[in-house]
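Researcher: Please generate the 3D structure of the following complex. Treat every line as part of one assembly.
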Amino acid sequence: MSTYRIGAGSGFAGDRFEPAEILAERGDLDALVFECLAERTIGLAQQRAASSAGAGFDRLFLDRLAGVLPHLAPRTRVLTNAGAADPVGLARAVVDLLAAHPRGAGRRVAAVVGDDVTAVIPSHARITGTDLTIGDLGDRLVSANAYIGAGAAMRALENGADVVITGRMGDAALFAAPIAVHHGWDDASPDEMAAPTLVGHLLECAGQLTGGYFADGGRKVVPGLATLGFPFADVAADGVADFGKAAGTGGLISRATVLEQLLYEIDDPSRYKTPDATLDLGDVRIDEVGPDRVRVSAASAEGRPEQLKVSVGVRDGFLAVGSIAYAGRGARERAELALRIVRERWEVVHGRDPDEVRADLQGYNSLRPWHEPSGEPAEVRARLSLRTFDRRAAALLHREVEALYTNGPAGGGGADLSLKETVGIVSTFIDRDRVEPRVEMVS
Amino acid sequence: MTTLGDLAHARAGDKGDTSILVVAPYEREDYARLDETLRPDRVAGHFGVDASHVTIHAVPRLGAFTVVVRGRLDGGVTRSRAADPHGKTLSGHLLDLVVEG
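Model: Done. Output below.
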């Protein structure tokens, strides 16, 4: 089998657009994958769809696809998890987009559904790390989606789909699917899925493999971060993968960038659980084989988990934040005074618990409040934050921060208020055989 | 005074309320020094948590470690009130850890 080239078009829902277009144009890709689904995205999408305030899928993907279409080779397959809570809905929108586009003709679209396990998850299922069960969440539960494996997306590709839209799926599985189909690997075999899953794990955050989230302004120098190129992998029939990026783009791919991403968000490197394989990353080899060219080999699996992880969205009220800034002489003292005033009024005037309001000095100790700061800040922002189910309490915090303009310490400026409705994410596990992913060919 | 950042580079990630940090020496010969420095009690002190909240995984063949700190993210990215709910900035904090000897 020939080497298979797969590229990363986005690493999260808000990622840059043009790197995918450049990769499509210069990369000679067999597949281009857009990872667009953060943990909480499905819950938020479900909430949007339920309130009919918008789509249950990530509309930005349509712009991403329109951007790459003029450059895609006819053979290039496109996969994304941007379907979120409504993969079929996004698949239909993609069909419409392709029909209206001169380069869209002849591309078939499939949706993968069945990751939504809201109807089948047992109410006695325990929420990981707590004594609570799914049943205890009551009407706060907004979504429950299993991280499914590559299998269903592979069936879609085997059925002739050129564009595959999924909801929740293991991020690496989304990349593993087209590689495994090409090389004839069996999705039920963890040993055969080890290599493509490892490739997917390395590509899933896109620019984080090619020098994004890496430069430190000193020793770790990355050229051309403003034009950072997204990565691709050339996956050979023996599972060895060479990673690179499009010619003429900025960024850097080296042993160090790959090593940081290999272990990124991995608790125990000897047991990295994905739906298709439990990977042992400890023996993986990383070798620089040319300029911006890194070889990754020796992927190995020890079986795969009997249960699939389920991401559960929980209605979690509002997050209200208010802040106001101080500069120059005594800036820190004045900001501290502002924090004290609001917390005192929270208790004395409003009769509420002052500890529900978090108080930070941004520019001084907000990111690591347990750590002793060194030196005095030239400017500092007093920041107060509150998580609440009570919209009036959120509004109250905003009023209190804004009132600091005329009632607080001297020289407070730039009051900034924000309110977000939030969906919390907890997780549980479900037996593999209770989840039935399936393919809907939409065109 | 030598700090971890003089010898190593790091990347921060998160899973729920747990911060997961990758740290690797620039030079292979500094691996043993990192191994001595990255003790759960020392890392716990640096992060202001109990030592039972910290796990260090050594990955010698890759020349790297993962440092796992539980309960430091104010409930995690979807719940946190903090200015940096992911704890992305904690790689910089880890690299401030003083290296002994």
